[in-house]
């Protein structure tokens, strides 16, 4: 049985008979990282899953694809039987009490007994707050094209504001996958990091938008927004990355140059780095109010409207176009340098910023 890894593999892992293929991020572990870390655990799960497929799927085979759930169900079960001998002995621990550590911005949970070294799941019911300080999940007022005041909800989580929305390991070196669902009015568009999986209609005139699981990423890159947006779109030369620019109603055409710049940068990175850009969708939102120039959230870049949208009536056309191109190039480069290739801690922020700044030019 041979196992190989490649830098980017669209399916993450594949159980081919005698030759299993993995994407690098799901297979390699830094020798300095402890073997009981979350990343090591995830690697062990994937390995157990694919090895189990040599029995459930390769030897014991389904008749047709509508029975795919059967082989996947067995292998998913074997993941946990192999990794944890106590998985079948399910036990629920009730929280005795919890304590807020205000300075550390952490929560301490007290359990009734000492736990052995084992992987456990934690379920926390929580309620986040909507802020007005442009951090975390915030409400942003703006005027539409007719001068009416509107409100948009958006996120800005870098560097340590994800914890204001949901409990998490809010540090850049703790990567995870996120499964997000957003409930909004049926006439609104809700955007997040991943593609839409399905939409559930609600009885109160709302809809629940369920997204696919995200790639492994740091918590500060989670993003979601909601409003009655409109968009323009295009694709890269090889057709593998769909690029969109979202704006509030009546301003989509102003995003044409930003869209062209985004597509051009992805095409350039594919050629320069001799690789396939790893994202199948890249959305760029021109937010009416955004405190920073732009933010490189995975697959959902949020920019200030003034840095992404182009008004033909501007007095300095050349300077404006250059500014948009630099911002877009910087944030698109961050999808690789920062989001996939990541720093351990914030004192290494300069590294991802320097790579992104280099690719601006």
Automatic annotation (TrEMBL):
Its BP terms in the Gene Ontology are:
peptide catabolic process; proteolysis
GO CC annotations, alphabetized: cytoplasm; extracellular space; membrane
Under SUPFAM superfamilies, the record lists: Leukotriene A4 hydrolase N-terminal domain, Metalloproteases ('zincins'), catalytic domain
Q: Which cofactor does it need?
A: Zn(2+)
Catalytic site positions: 331 (proton acceptor)
Annotated Aminopeptidase N-like N-terminal domain ranges read 82-221
Which keywords accompany this UniProt record? Aminopeptidase, Hydrolase, Metal-binding, Metalloprotease, Protease, Zinc
Can you tell me which residues bind Zn(2+)? 330, 334, 353
Q: Which CDD domains match?
A: M1_APN-Q_like
How the cofactor is bound: the record states: Binds 1 zinc ion per subunit.
Task: Describe the family membership recorded for this protein in Swiss-Prot or TrEMBL.
Answer: Belongs to the peptidase M1 family.
- Identification of the protein by name: Peptidase_M1 domain-containing protein
Organism of origin:
Parastrongyloides trichosuri (Possum-specific nematode worm)
């Amino acid at each position: 049985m041979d196992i190989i890894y490649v830098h980017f593999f669209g399916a993450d892992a594949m159980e081919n008979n005698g030759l299993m293929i993995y994407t690098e991020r799901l297979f390699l572990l830094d020798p300095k990282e402890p073997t009981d870390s979350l990343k090591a655990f995830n690697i062990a799960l994937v390995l157990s899953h694919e090895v189990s497929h040599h029995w459930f799927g390769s030897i014991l085979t389904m008749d047709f694809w509508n029975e795919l759930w059967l082989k996947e169900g067995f292998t998913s079960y074997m993941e946990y039987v192999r990794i944890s001998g106590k998985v079948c002995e399910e036990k629920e621990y009730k929280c005795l009490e919890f304590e807020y550590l205000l300075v550390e911005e952490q929560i301490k949970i007290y359990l009734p007994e000492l736990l052995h070294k084992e992987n456990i799941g934690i379920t926390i019911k929580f309620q986040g707050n909507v802020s007005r300080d442009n951090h975390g999940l915030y409400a942003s007022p703006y005027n539409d094209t007719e001068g009416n005041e509107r409100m948009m909800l958006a996120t800005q989580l870098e560097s340590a504001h994800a914890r204001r929305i949901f409990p998490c390991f809010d540090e850049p070196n703790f990567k995870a996958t996120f499964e997000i669902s957003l409930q909004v009015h049926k006439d609104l568009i809700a955007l997040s990091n991943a593609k839409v999986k399905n939409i559930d209609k609600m009885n109160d005139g709302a809809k629940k938008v369920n997204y696919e699981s995200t790639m492994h990423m740091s918590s500060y890159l989670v993003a979601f927004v909601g409003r009655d947006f409109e968009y323009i779109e295009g694709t890269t030369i090889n057709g593998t990355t769909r690029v969109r620019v979202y704006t509030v109603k009546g301003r989509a055409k102003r995003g044409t140059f930003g869209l062209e710049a985004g597509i051009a940068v992805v095409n350039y990175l594919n050629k320069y780095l001799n690789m396939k850009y790893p994202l199948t969708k890249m959305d760029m939102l021109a937010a009416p109010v955004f405190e920073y120039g732009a933010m490189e959230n995975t697959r959902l870049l949020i920019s200030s409207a003034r840095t992404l949208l182009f008004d033909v009536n501007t007095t300095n056309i050349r300077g404006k176009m250059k500014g948009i191109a630099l911002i877009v190039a910087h944030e698109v480069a961050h999808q690789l340098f920062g989001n996939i290739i990541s720093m351990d801690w914030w004192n290494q922020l300069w590294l991802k910023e320097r790579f992104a700044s280099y690719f601006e030019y």
